[in-house]
Automatic annotation (TrEMBL):
It comes from Novosphingobium pentaromativorans US6-1. Residues 1-28 form the signal peptide. The keyword Hydrolase applies. Residues 78-213 form the Peptidase M16 N-terminal domain. This is Zinc protease. The lineage of its organism: Bacteria, Pseudomonadati, Pseudomonadota, Alphaproteobacteria, Sphingomonadales. Belongs to the peptidase M16 family. PANTHER family: NARDILYSIN (PTHR43690), PROTEIN YHJJ (PTHR43690:SF17). GO terms for biological process: proteolysis.
Length: 972
C-alpha cells in the first residue's frame, strides 16, 4: 500500500468508528501472486526510446490479445478495467454507419454470462454505479468498455472479468437484442440533434471533405440503423471483435501479476476466426485543383443558425502519419505547445483590451488519425465578422513572421514546467481510473506513456532548445499545410457568403505586434502588493473532535478549519465561504449574479488587473474559482504548499482590496447577451436556462437574465452589488491537505486575520424565505427552437432543507436511486422513448426549505404524457409497495462504495464540513454519513415515498417544439 492508502484508511476508519453500524474496510484482499511478470519486451515501447514507465506491466496472450496492468491504490480497494477494441465508426462500411456504437449497446444487453437485460443489475450487485462506474464509449477510431470496480476482492474481480470477457468475446446479438437496443440508440440520436449537431456535421463535412471522417459520425444514420439485422451486425462484430484487435488495461489496488492472471484466465481461450482484416484507409486532406500553394484555401461554408452565437473556425490541414513516439518527437511537441501558448496569450490580451472579437484561440490536434490540423476559433462581436477574422489573422501573421521574445518563451516554459511538475508531486494520489484512461488514449493515437518524473526530466533537459528561432520555425510549420478550410456560423442570412468567407481567408493581412509581451516588462510580484491590514493572531485554536481538524477564531470574526494531511503530497485545497449567497442579493439586482460569475474574479485585486493576475501567477499553482450558493458565496482553489501563502493573499485581498476594472464586466455583458439565444436551441438548453427559476417559485434571482436585462446593467451597479456582497457576512476558511500548520497560521495572520471586522450577514429569517412551486398536475409549458422531434419532461416533488434534516436527505438519495432504476427500466429499456432518464434529490443545507425530488427525461413530443404517466405510476408503486431486498441492495451497495471511495480524500470532508464553524452540528452529521446513505429497510423507503411522492404533491414542466402546446403556457 502507498502512503495515500494509509491516509485513506485512516479517514475511512473514522467513518466506520463513527457510524452506527460496523462497515468492512474497502481495501482489496489480495490473493497469492502468480509467477513474476516478464517486462523484458513491453509491446507499447517497441521502436521507441521513451523510458518505460516501470509501474505498467505489459503482456500478450497466444491469441494476440494484449494487456497492461499496474498496481494503484487510489481510491483504495478499486480496480479500473478498460477493454479497448481498435474499431470505431471509421471502420464501418457505408451500409454499416452506426454499427460500432450499436454494438456497444448490444454487448451490454446479453452475452455468455449475462442474461438478457440484466447487466445493470449484475454490476450494481458488485457495487458499480451504472453510468459512472460502468460505461462504454464509441469514437471514430475505437470502442472502449469501462468498469471501475469498488471494494475489489478476489471473488468480485473474478466475477467481473468473467462478465466483461463474455460481453466482448461472446455476445448474443439476437433479433430480440436488436429490437430492444435500436429504439434506445435512436433516442440517443434524437437527443443529440438540433443546431449544435448541425454545426458539428457541417464542420466535419467541410474540414474533412473527401475523407471518410466527413460522413462517419459514431451515432450513424436512421437509414442504416433501421436496416440493421442480427446478421449484418454480427458481420461487423466478427470483422473487428477478435482478440488480436483488443487490449485490456487494468489499474487498481491489487498485485499486477494477480490482475494479469485474471486477463489470462478469462480472455486466453478467445479464438479469432479467419485472417485479421486490415484497417481501412482514412484518406488525406487535399487542396483543390489550382490552389495557391502559398495559401491553399479550399472549402468554405456559411451556416445560418439564428439561435447560436456567431462563431468562426478555420483549419490548416496536413496529412496524418503515424510517428515514432520518441524523445525527439516529444521535444518537438513541447515547442509546438509553447508556440501555441504564446499566440493564445496574445489573442486573449487583445480581446481583453476590447475590440472586434469576444474570444479567439489556436489549437493543434491530430484528428481521428485522419488529419494533422491547426484550428483557429473566433467569436466575433457585432456584425463585422471580417474585422474580427482580420484582427485574429493579424496576430497570427506577426507570430509567423518574427520570433517571439525570450521573455514570452520563458513565461510559457514556466507554465509548462508547473504542468509537468504537479503530476510528479501528486503521483501517489493519481487515480487508477485516470491512469487506465491515459493508456487507452495513448493506444488510440499510437503513442506511449511515460512516468511523470521522466516527462519532467525530458522537458527540463529540452529547455536549451526553447529558443526564439526554434519557436518561430514551429509556429510557421503549425500554420502551413496542404489546405485551409473554414466554417462561419452566423445568426443572420445574407451576412456572409461562402465566397466572401473564402476571400477573407485569402486576403493578406498586416502583422499586428501590439500585443507582444514587451522585452524587459516591469516585473509583478506579491512582495510589492499592499498589505491586507494589521496582522492579528487567532484568539482561539481548538480541536473539533474529528480526525486532526482544528478550528481557529480571529477577533474580526473569521473562522478557519485546518487539516494538515501530508499523505496527500503536493496538494492543498482552499475554500473561502463568505456572505449571504443568492438570498442576500436584492431581486431587482438579479442580473448582476450572472455577471458576477463571469467577471468578479477578473475585475482584479489590490493593484492587480486581469493581465497582472496572469503574470503574477506564472509558474505558480494558484486558482480562483467562484461560486454562488444558496446562502453563501465561495472562492476555491487547489494549490501547492509553496504557493499557499500567496493563494490566501489573493482570496483575502478580493474581500478587502477589490479592484473594479470595467473591462471584464463589459466583456461579461457581451458574452451573456451572446449566449442567451443558444439556450433556446434544444429542450436541454431551455431547462438549463429556466428550470432553477421555476424550481425556486419563479424567484428572479434564479432566472437567466435576458439580453435586455443584461444591457440595463452598469459598471457602477456591478461595483455596488458585488462590493456589498464581498463586504457582508461571516468568513469561513478551510485549508485541507499537504501544508505546514505553523506556516499556514502565519499566512492567515497576515491575510484573513488582518481583514476589517465584517458587516453582519442578513438574518436567518431573511435567508429562510424560500419560494417553492405550488403542486399542480397541469404542466408549465416552455418552447424551444430546435428539432420538431425533441421535447423534455420534468416532474418534481418539493421536500425540505436545513442541516437538521441532513440525515433524511441522505435517505432520500436512496429513494431517488430506486426511482432512477425503475425509470431507466421502464422508459429506456422497455419503452425506448428516452436515452437517459434520471431522478435526483436536492436538499439545501443552508436553508429551511427548497429541496426537491426531480425526475426528468428528454423524449419525443408524443411521449411527454407517457413519461408523466410512468413517473406517476412508479411514485405510486413506491408508496403502495416496499421495494424488494434485492432491489434495495442494488442501490445501497453502490452508494456504500461511492461514500467510502469519496471518503478516501480530504476533499470529501471539506465539502461535508462547509459552514460547520457557524453551525457546529455539521461536525456531528458527518459521523453518520455512511450509515445514513446505506442502512435502511424496504418499509422505511415506503414511508419516505409516502411522505414526499404523493399524487397531489408534485408540479411538472414540459419543453415542447415551437408551435406545439399543451397545459398552461409560461413565457419569459
Amino acid at each position: 500500500m502507498t502512503n495515500y492508502s494509509r491516509a485513506a484508511a485512516r479517514s475511512l476508519a473514522c467513518l466506520m468508528l463513527l457510524s452506527q453500524t460496523p462497515v468492512q474496510p474497502v481495501l482489496a484482499q489480495e490473493v497469492a501472486a502468480p509467477a513474476k511478470l516478464d517486462d523484458s519486451d513491453p509491446w507499447l515501447y517497441r521502436g521507441s526510446d521513451i523510458p518505460h514507465d516501470p509501474d505498467w506491466h505489459f503482456g500478450e496472450l497466444s491469441n494476440g490479445l494484449r494487456y497492461a496492468v499496474r498496481k494503484n491504490g487510489v481510491p483504495p480497494g478499486q480496480v479500473s478495467i478498460r477493454i479497448r477494441v481498435d474499431a470505431g465508426s471509421l471502420y464501418e462500411k457505408d451500409s454499416e454507419r452506426g454499427y460500432a456504437h450499436l454494438l456497444e449497446h448490444m454487448l451490454f444487453r446479453q452475452s455468455k454470462y449475462i442474461p438478457e437485460g440484466t447487466a445493470i443489475a449484475a454490476f450494481q450487485r458488485l457495487g458499480a454505479t451504472f453510468g459512472s462506474d460502468t460505461n462504454a464509449v464509441t469514437s471514430t477510431t475505437q470502442t472502449v468498455f469501462k468498469l471501475d470496480l469498488p471494494n475489489a476482492t478476489p471473488e468480485s474481480l473474478d466475477e467481473t472479468f468473467k462478465l466483461m470477457s463474455g460481453m466482448v468475446s461472446a455476445p448474443t446479438l439476437s433479433a430480440s437484442n436488436l429490437k430492444s437496443d435500436l429504439p434506445i440508440v435512436l433516442a440517443e440520436m434524437r437527443e443529440r440533434g438540433g443546431a449544435s449537431k448541425r454545426v458539428q456535421d457541417a464542420m466535419q463535412q467541410v474540414f474533412y471533405a473527401g475523407q471518410p471522417l466527413s460522413v462517419r459520425e459514431p451515432i450513424g444514420t436512421v437509414q442504416s440503423l433501421t436496416a440493421a439485422t442480427p446478421q449484418s451486425v454480427r458481420a461487423f462484430y466478427s470483422r473487428w471483435y477478435r482478440p488480436d484487435n483488443v487490449a485490456v488495461i487494468v489499474a487498481g489496488d491489487a498485485d499486477p501479476a494477480t490482475l494479469a492472471s485474471y486477463v489470462k484466465k478469462w480472455f486466453g481461450d478467445w479464438k479469432a476466426s479467419g485472417a485479421r482484416s486490415p484497417a481501412p484507409s482514412f484518406g488525406d486532406p487535399a487542396a483543390p485543383a489550382g490552389a495557391d500553394p502559398r495559401n491553399p484555401v479550399g472549402e468554405t461554408r456559411v451556416l445560418v443558425e439564428p439561435d447560436l452565437p456567431p462563431s468562426m473556425m478555420y483549419a490548416i490541414l496536413r496529412p496524418w502519419r503515424q510517428v515514432t513516439d520518441n524523445i525527439v518527437y516529444n521535444q518537438g511537441l513541447m515547442i509546438d505547445s509553447i508556440a501555441q501558448a504564446i499566440i493564445n496569450r496574445r489573442l486573449e490580451s487583445k480581446a481583453r483590451a476590447g475590440g472586434s472579437y469576444l474570444s479567439a484561440s489556436v489549437n493543434q490536434d491530430d484528428v481521428s488519425r485522419s488529419a494533422d490540423a491547426t484550428f483557429v476559433s473566433v467569436t466575433p462581436l457585432g456584425d463585422d465578422w471580417e474585422a474580427a477574422l482580420k484582427d485574429v489573422r493579424a496576430v497570427i501573421a506577426d507570430a509567423v513572421s518574427r520570433p517571439p521574445t525570450q521573455e514570452e518563451i520563458d513565461r510559457e516554459v514556466a507554465e509548462l514546467d508547473l504542468a509537468f511538475q504537479v503530476p510528479v508531486e501528486q503521483q501517489r494520489i493519481l487515480p487508477g481510473s485516470k491512469l487506465a484512461d491515459d493508456l487507452v488514449n495513448a493506444l488510440d493515437i499510437r503513442e506511449t506513456v511515460a512516468a511523470p518524473q521522466d516527462v519532467l526530466r525530458i522537458f527540463r533537459e529540452t529547455k536549451p532548445l526553447f529558443t526564439p528561432k526554434a519557436v518561430l520555425e514551429h509556429t510557421q510549420a503549425l500554420f502551413s499545410g496542404t489546405v485551409t478550410r473554414g466554417l462561419f456560423t452566423t445568426q443572420k442570412a445574407g451576412q456572409a457568403s461562402d465566397a466572401e468567407l473564402r476571400q477573407a481567408l485569402l486576403d493578406p493581412v498586416k502583422p499586428d505586434e501590439s500585443v507582444r509581451l514587451a522585452a524587459n516588462a516591469a516585473p509583478v510580484s506579491f512582495d510589492k502588493l499592499p498589505a491586507i491590514g494589521k496582522p492579528a493572531k487567532p484568539e482561539a485554536e481548538l480541536p473539533v473532535g474529528l480526525l486532526d481538524i482544528e478550528e481557529l477564531t480571529f477577533a474580526n470574526g473569521v473562522k478557519v478549519l485546518l487539516w494538515p494531511v501530508q499523505e496527500e503530497p503536493g496538494r492543498v485545497m482552499v475554500k473561502v465561504r463568505f456572505g449571504g449567497g443568492y438570498r442576500s442579493i436584492d431581486p431587482k439586482d438579479a442580473p448582476y449574479i450572472t455577471l458576477g460569475q463571469y467577471a468578479l474574479v477578473g475585475s482584479g485585486v489590490a493593484t492587480l488587473g486581469q493581465e497582472d493576475l496572469d503574470r503574477v501567477a506564472t509558474g505558480r499553482k494558484l486558482g480562483f474559482d467562484f461560486d454562488v450558493q444558496d446562502a453563501s458565496f465561495q472562492f476555491s482553489a487547489e494549490t501547492r504548499p509553496s504557493d499557499l501563502a500567496d493563494q490566501l493573499y489573493l482570496f483575502a485581498a478580493k474581500l478587502d482590496l477589490p479592484k473594479w476594472d470595467a473591462s471584464p464586466f463589459l466583456r461579461a455583458k457581451a458574452a451573456a447577451k451572446i449566449q442567451y439565444d443558444t439556450f433556446a436551441t434544444s429542450p436541454q438548453g431551455v431547462l438549463n436556462r429556466d428550470l432553477q427559476f421555476y424550481q425556486h417559485g419563479e424567484d428572479p434571482r434564479f432566472a437567466t437574465p435576458t439580453p435586455a436585462e443584461i444591457e440595463a446593467t452598469t459598471p457602477e451597479g456591478f461595483k455596488r452589488v458585488w462590493g456589498k456582497a464581498l463586504h457582508d457576512g461571516p468568513v469561513e476558511v478551510q485549508i485541507f491537505g499537504d501544508f505546514d500548520k505553523a506556516a499556514a497560521i502565519a499566512s492567515l495572520e497576515k491575510t484573513f486575520g488582518a481583514l476589517k471586522p465584517r458587516t453582519p450577514a442578513p438574518s436567518t429569517a431573511d435567508l429562510a424565505n424560500v419560494s417553492v412551486p405550488q403542486p399542480s398536475d397541469k404542466p408549465i409549458v416552455l418552447h424551444h427552437h430546435g428539432d420538431p422531434d425533441q421535447a423534455a419532461a420534468v416532474i418534481s416533488w418539493p421536500t425540505g432543507g436545513g442541516s437538521m434534516g441532513i440525515r433524511e436527505s441522505r435517505q432520500l438519495e436512496i429513494l431517488t436511486q430506486l426511482f432512477t432504476n425503475r425509470l431507466l427500466d421502464a422508459v429506456r429499456e422497455k419503452l425506448g422513448v428516452s436515452y437517459a432518464p434520471y431522478v435526483y434529490s436536492s436538499w439545501p443545507v443552508d436553508l429551511q426549505a427548497g429541496g426537491s425530488i426531480t425526475a426528468m427525461a428528454q423524449v419525443d413530443p408524443k411521449s411527454v404524457s407517457v413519461f408523466f404517466q410512468t413517473a406517476d405510476e412508479i411514485a405510486q408503486d413506491l408508496i403502495n409497495n416496499p421495494p424488494t431486498a434485492d432491489e434495495l441492495a442494488r442501490v445501497t451497495e453502490p452508494l456504500r462504495q461511492q461514500v467510502t471511495r469519496a471518503a478516501s480524500s480530504t476533499s470529501f470532508f471539506m465539502s461535508q464540513l462547509e459552514g460547520a464553524t457557524e453551525e457546529p452540528s455539521r461536525f456531528g452529521t458527518i459521523r453518520t454519513v455512511l450509515y445514513d446513505y446505506t442502512e435502511t429497510t424496504p418499509e422505511k423507503m415506503q414511508a419516505l415515498a409516502a411522505r414526499y411522492l404523493g399524487k397531489n404533491a408534485s408540479w411538472r414542466l414540459e419543453v415542447m417544439p415551437e408551435g406545439k402546446t399543451s397545459g398552461a403556457i409560461a413565457s419569459r
